[in-house]
Amino acid sequence: MEKALIINIERLKNDSYLDKNVSNNDIRVAVLFIQDEIIEHVIGGALFDCIQAMVIDGSIDCSGNGIYKQLLDDFLFPVFVYAVQAEISIPKSFKVRNIGTIQQTSDHIRQTGLSDIKYLNSYYRNKADFYIQRAIKFLRYNQDCFPELCNCSCSWCQDRAFSKQPNTSLNLKIVDVKTDMRKNYLEIVKLVSNICLAHPLVNDVHYGIYHSSECEHIRYGAIILTPDSITTSMNTIEYNFNLMYVDRLKSDESNELEIQSTGIDVIRGIVGVSAEHHSMLLDYEDTISVHVFSRQFADNVAGAVTSIRVKAPANLGECGWYTYRDEC
Q: How far apart are CA 180 and CA 82, in angstroms?
């Protein structure tokens, strides 16, 4: 499909903090990237293609497409307002020339430093994330109005299991477990990750705390799965993990309690579904301990964390690979 902007650049300038003399081409580059990187992941590939086609042929303004126009104008446009400003801040401060990358300066204007630019980038991304979550909630409450969500084959819609079922519960899609319960470490991590991704409030899963701290584009709220101890016996292997829900704090940290409360609910939902549908593999006690926190990783975040234990059948000392040779 033809690449086209689904928003109007002039409206974006009028409704944002962008100066009127910012190059339309610079904004266009940022908008196209945000459409690919954020918007298509928020609404799914099929719905994005549908809206883009409506914008191109003008049918987005037809009365029969009011729900699509509402999604675009009231829920997606605010994402662009802040995400564009976050995306454009570094390219507008630095330019690539033949002699290398240079910082633009002026005799009459004091340039902001890199630390200030990073702060502004984080500030705008916080606001963009708020509107992203609002758009997702709108889609979930109105999914019957968007058949593209149910018919979409992209991984985003599949992982979050959009369906015709009413949103009266967590509406988790359960990952099937093979009859053969013997699974290696990689398969265990994939299984736990898929269960987490099925939760409607989980947009990303990262393995290993050091990996997540280096990631620049975590899609919050996210689950961080970190390894702990591994215990093996004659018949089983037990894998222990820390399961952490994180979301980005606002600049004034006013949403700390809200994030922590959401984290507790998400963890309880994941553990409850796992215990009910994967009790032979995922081993939980009747009670779990959940701790809340706020701290600085790659971003200033808050959330909740618990420990989980995954038990898999195994035979200690399986030796089909070994051929005995009599050395005498």
A: 48
